[in-house]
What we know:
Elements: H1 2-16, H2 20-23, H3 25-41, H4 48-62, H5 72-100, H6 103-131, H7 134-155, H8 160-165, H9 169-190
Helix pairs in contact: 3-5, 4-5, 4-7, 5-6
Amino acid sequence: NNTIVAFMVPKIEIDYNITSSTSYLLISVNQIGMLLGTLLSAKLPGSRKDKIVKTIVASVLIYPLLLFKLPLLVMYSLRFIFAVLEGLYLNEGPSLITEISAVHYRGFNFGIAFFMWPIGGFLPTCAYKYVGSVVLLNSSYIVLGIMASYLIINYIPDSPRQLFVMGEYEQAKKSIEFILSMQTLNYQVNI
């Protein structure tokens, strides 16, 4: 996200007739929003899976608006809202991965998620050289968001711990049963 916006900064400076320090505020506002989103995630109702899916869907709806030349204040506001959503995801995503992973895979699953984060920032940088279009890079973000939502909704169980804390005992039981069935399948494949 910040990588893509960094490519847009020279054009933003020309389009809006602003200085470099003003244009780089678009990147800084992202960090502030992410911090707020991370802090808010514990206060928002819903399970981890629900929060992740809602965050991705809202991000996919907001992100295309950033492709248009909007008033500067609207652009800053959308970047801030997008960053809050990103902060929500950054808090809930790793927690969900940790809570649904088998103990002997937990460290690997958690580590691979954070290993992929810088790669996600590096690949658009490389792709931009060949694609040459911020619009195409942004549209790939939208497609990946839709695919991730589909996979999470259909194939990722919710956190049994979170469901239990929320008092949804039957859902927690179903989630545990799903996780155990996946672990049993994994053991059967490895034998």
